[in-house]
Amino acid sequence: MNFSEIKYLLQKDFTQELRQKHTIGGLFIYIISTVFVCFLSFRQIVDIPTWNALFWIILLFAAIQATGKSFQQDTKSRLFYLFGLTSPQSYILSKMILNGIIIFILAIINYAFYSLLIGNPVENQSMFLIGLIFGSFGLAINFTMVSGIASKTSNQTLTAILGFPIILPLLMSVIRFSKNAIDGIDWSVNYKYLVVIICLKVMVVALSYVLFPYLWRE
Amino acid sequence: MKNYWWKILGIVMVLYAIIRGLLMDVPALPILNETIRNLYYHVTMWFGMMILLTISVIFSIKYLSSNNQKHDTVAIESANTGMLLGLLGLFTGMIWANFTWGAPWVNDPKLNGSAITLLIYFAYFILRSSLDEEQKKAKISAVYNIFAYVMLIVFLMILPRMTDSLHPGNGGNPAFSTYDLDEKMRWVFYPAIIGWTLIGVWMMQVRIRIKNIEYDN
Question: Which pTM was predicted?
Answer without folding.
Answer: 0.86
